Amino acid sequence: MESKYFILFLLSFYSFIPKISSTTTNVINTNQFITDGDTIVSSGGTFELGFFSPNGSTTRYIGIWYKQILPYVQTIVWVANREKPLTNTSSVVLKVNKPGILALLNDKNETIWSTNTSRSVQNPVAVLLDSGNLVLKDANDDNPENFLWQSFNFPTDTHLPDMKLGKNFKTGIEVYLLAWKNDNDPTPGEYSLHIDPTGYPQGLIRHGARVSARAGPWNGLRWSGAPAPLQTQTSIYTFQFVFNEEEVYYSFSLINNSLLTRLVLTNNGYIQRLTWVDRTKSWHLYLNIPLDTCDTYSLCGAYGSCVIDSSPVCGCLDKFEPKYPQNWQTGDWSQGCVRKTPIDCNKEHGFLKYSGIKLPETNNSQYNKTMTLEGCRQVCSTNCSCTAYSSLDISNGDKGCLFWSGELIDIRELSGRGQDIYIRMDSSDIVSQASSNRKKTGTVLAVSFSLLVAVILLGLILFMYIRKKKKLKLKEDFELPQFQLSLITRATNNFSVNNQIGEGGYGPVYKGVLEEGQEIAVKRLSRTSMQGIDEFKNEVTYIAKLQHRNLVRLLGCCIQGEEKMLIYEYMPNKSLDSYIFG
Ligand SMILES: *[C@@H]1O[C@H](CO)[C@@H](O)[C@H](O)[C@H]1NC(C)=O
Ligand SMILES: *[C@@H]1O[C@H](CO)[C@@H](O)[C@H](O)[C@H]1NC(C)=O
Ligand SMILES: *[C@@H]1O[C@H](CO)[C@@H](O)[C@H](O)[C@H]1NC(C)=O
Ligand SMILES: *[C@@H]1O[C@H](CO)[C@@H](O)[C@H](O)[C@H]1NC(C)=O
Ligand SMILES: *[C@@H]1O[C@H](CO)[C@@H](O)[C@H](O)[C@H]1NC(C)=O
Ligand SMILES: *[C@@H]1O[C@H](CO)[C@@H](O)[C@H](O)[C@H]1NC(C)=O
Ligand SMILES: *[C@@H]1O[C@H](CO)[C@@H](O)[C@H](O)[C@H]1NC(C)=O
Ligand SMILES: *[C@@H]1O[C@H](CO)[C@@H](O)[C@H](O)[C@H]1NC(C)=O
Description:
The structure is a single chain. The protein is mainly beta. Among the domains are: 1-154, Orthogonal Prism (Agglutinin, subunit A); 485-581, Phosphorylase Kinase, domain 1. It has seven helices and 42 strands. The longest helix is centred in the C-terminal third of the chain and has 24 residues, at 445-468. The structure holds 2-acetamido-2-deoxy-beta-D-glucopyranose (8 copies). One 2-acetamido-2-deoxy-beta-D-glucopyranose is lined by residues 368, 370-371, 375. One 2-acetamido-2-deoxy-beta-D-glucopyranose is lined by residues 366, 383, 385-386, 405. Residues 25-149 form the Bulb-type lectin domain. Residues 495-582 form the Protein kinase domain. The chain crosses the membrane at residues 444-466. One of its GO terms (molecular function) is protein serine/threonine kinase activity. Its EC number is 2.7.11.1.
């Protein structure tokens, strides 16, 4: 107490500054100051600012906490002097100076901590808003755009409702979370949480300078790798992602101000959403990210895919194989996978669709917000350095494009909530169906896929041949059924891009469902693939004799006008082996 009076006495030499009054206020003006023991309280009574000590510590900090739940638990949401802890606050004051700075000063009027500003106002005040935002502003100006400084631009480890986490491209200010060192020490820790706009914006957790986990790009509904909320609006908060020329940010808002929720970056690199449960008078863990091992950044390397319920978790994407099989076997997956058939830019390519995945690292990607998926394919196919493309916004069908160049890293399978990506492949790798995204290494499938491709190509020639002869009879005991075009059109939703499961030099492949429920794969032959008919004629007949239709389950064909299609039975996941060996 004595020292407080001492300070008061000291300061009164220069001006008659009273200590903040005992009645609750949310403001510090230039005529007041606060010392240890004093607080200011936001107008709705939700937040309080003052000196505190972390649990199990005696060092003192200026911070903001939830006032109403303080009797149950001290929940610090912001810390001012996290790098300058105080051991003796007896002569320390927090006060507002002109031109508009809030400063923590010692008895020698030396600054321990302060806000900064490039502007000045007539009558500066510090106000604790009911959102938990501490702002420096002119007493008579409530316009947020004119705030001199606000704690929401300099958060510590907590993302509060209505705080914009991200980057303002006009001011250059990046708002990110920086974890505490440990539960009892607000000193900056090792982990930080960013909405990183490099390439296309993504949510990232960094450990030092290195990325430790990635939420992925925003897909119009959520972060690509985030768990899907059961509804887009939960019952306690709403969230939004904004990305335009001025800024990129993620924020959330409470639906009912009496139901509290916050996001915290823990000192060991987890993002936790906590909700206050009044019944138990405690915070409950609502969400914890990273979810599992597969959220470890780039665990399976380039073109690797992490599947949490398989052992080992890492595999290569279908049509890729480990770059270094020896290392891969020991669980050293970081060097990733390579194509079984390398891409030769002088040869013909197609795109293979991989479904149900978390979109890969986008820090080197390009985007277009308005293009259609078909437009994305065209753009990507004209530039051999475009490795893959996907839809940008899936909130209302497919809209916009993401284009990747270089290797694709940090992919995981997300059953039921993943997205589609179309990866550039050598034409020989595009086959009637590959519904599985990844394969374990060294299976017989490589052989069987080549066989399948050969059969498809021969099948094509076969039908040219047949058509020429105006006859579908191949052998005495082998009639190939003809399908009506209208039937196939219906089965494939009018050849919708959503039904497209692959694409080759000879044309796209669609998945379809016949009216009786049978799943089919439809290969729609493009007109450019008509060469070499005569050379293959004999071999086609030979294959037709050999295959007994069962090998690839060719159900029939459809030849009508310009359209030529081969109809196969849709091959479910990994069943090819059993067709061949079963
Ligand atoms: C403070 O730490 C003790 C011991 O670690 C713990 O039991 C208690 O719950 C903590 N209190 C708060 C408010 O975190
Ligand atoms: C705290 O600082 C005051 C004045 O600066 C001094 O008188 C007092 O002895 C100090 N207390 C401790 C415990 O160091
Ligand atoms: C303390 O320092 C601030 C600037 O750092 C200055 O404006 C103020 O007049 C000083 N007060 C005293 C009492 O020296
Ligand atoms: C205030 O300080 C922060 C962090 O030290 C810095 O990034 C920012 O540019 C400063 N602002 C002004 C107006 O000086
Ligand atoms: C907000 O939540 C409180 C506590 O659950 C409840 O009493 C109140 O009716 C709710 N208000 C609204 C507008 O839903
Ligand atoms: C993108 O991420 C990769 C892998 O973490 C890294 O090597 C590369 O430097 C990053 N590129 C940019 C532009 O940040
Ligand atoms: C996106 O694509 C559309 C249509 O192709 C084009 O008009 C537009 O300029 C593109 N936007 C950007 C930013 O490249
Ligand atoms: C092809 O794509 C790469 C990577 O996206 C880009 O740098 C390059 O400019 C593109 N080339 C052309 C001709 O568009």
